[in-house]
Amino acid sequence: MLRRPIRFGVAILALTATPPVLAADISAAPPPAAPAPEVAISPDIFDWSGLYVGAHAGYLFGNSDVGFGPLGGLSTMGVETDGFAGGGQVGFNWQMDRLVLGGEADLSWANLEGSHTSSGGVVQTRADWLSTVRGRAGVAFDRVLVYGTGGVAFTSMETSFAGPPGYNSDKQGLTGWTAGAGVEWAMTDNLSLKGEYLYVDFSDEPYLLGAPTPTPVDLDGSYVRVGVNYKFNLF
Question: Which residues are in coiled coils (predicted)?
Fold first, then answer.
């Protein structure tokens, strides 16, 4: 008969001890985590990668040195040359973060000519086309690309001499190097405008102008131009 009161008393003690334990557990629970802050979405950065084609127009001005006498060492005529030029280009860009690498080839139809008159006669030069194949490397500031460029240049120039012993003309292909810089602005996702400066330097080539020995003629100059490009979104 005494077992039931003892069991009942033990149960009452257990129930009275439970609330303090539960209260201690609740007070020790960690506070709820704060909500994660919202991440602002940055605007899209323009991607210069892709194939492009375009057109350009500008002005060429430079100088040709025409040397007479053995190996061109007796006298030299400096012929100032200038003229308008324009044509087309094709290229490709590859962008890594802000670095943009690529290549470009262009062909310009030109009206580059000049003449020099002296007591010995008249020298005239004329080039009607110019082409370059160049690498490009630049830094992109979103829709503005600032770049440097360099490579090889090609042209064909006619040189004539009117004087003793008469009139003679010769035409030779010239190969040289080119270097320059430019800036390009993307007006839309596909269309961009650019301004560019190129320096070109062609080495001496021997011309047959009636002298006992070939006459060395060179050409160097500056090409300032503007252009427009259309970029194809390949990716």
Answer: none
